[in-house]
Here is the input.
Amino acid sequence: MRLATGRIDGRPSLYVDLGGDRFVTADLLAERCAERWLTGLRDVRDLLESIDDPVARLRDLSAGAEDVDGQPLAAIELEAPVLDPRAFVCIGRNYPAHVAEGNAPMPEFPLLFSKFSNTLVASGATVPYPAITEQLDYEGELAVVIGRTSSRLRPEDAWNAIAGYTIIDDISARDRQEGDLQWIRGKSLDGFAPLGPVVVTADEVADVDQLRIRTTVNGELRQDALCGEMHFKLPELLAFITAGITLSPGDLIATGTPAGVGMGFTPPRYLSPGDRIEVQIEPIGMLHTTIGAQRTDPATVPRR
Here is the structure.
């Protein structure tokens, strides 16, 4: 099942694919199927917090709505499928070839950092180019959407905590990432986490290791790798994170990027205004964004 968030009259609303690229709002399904719990859902997080096992219930309702008309995903004014996660955990240096291209040591345990909800934008958005960086980079990644409250997971139980998968471009300001003493500004500036276009529920993905990440910049293939190349796989990642951090429905885990980022070239090939980045992972689809004009106004805080 595919889930999306779209904007109607300025307000976000959850959309559900009934099959065959026929998206309808959860509100319409609520009216059609007399299911009040579906009313007013804004995004995937709202759905996951609504009732016990909402994805299974929604799947049953969708199967009985074959006569309901919908619209294609391309006709929806998309938002990020998760608007405001409580936790947004990212994994650094999780693909050995990417670690090698950055001349960094391979971590002995998962390297965690975080992004904030101000970074989230939809597929099709224009990503701001802040005045405080001159080294804007891309990182195509698989993102995990947590489906239930999870604490101290055992690796063998981790799969049960995953509601679905989506795509993220972990936009990075390399000069801020390397020049600051931490990664917050380098990773969490406004618009630095394009997400989407949809969430595909976990039952639609038989083998995460066989998912292929392909990232292009202006049509040129830059990244092409299987998720099976991750050094720390999803069960280990979720066990490591939840050993001390409780995850909630709708929380996001960005699982790391493969080789081929801009900083890995000699000389580096950073992003420029007008560049179009496309990250594709099937069966999720394609996340695409464009880099906006570089701001030149004086920063309100020193660059360093």
User: Anything to note?
Assistant: The domain at 88-294 is CATH 3.90.850.10 (Fumarylacetoacetate hydrolase; domain 2).
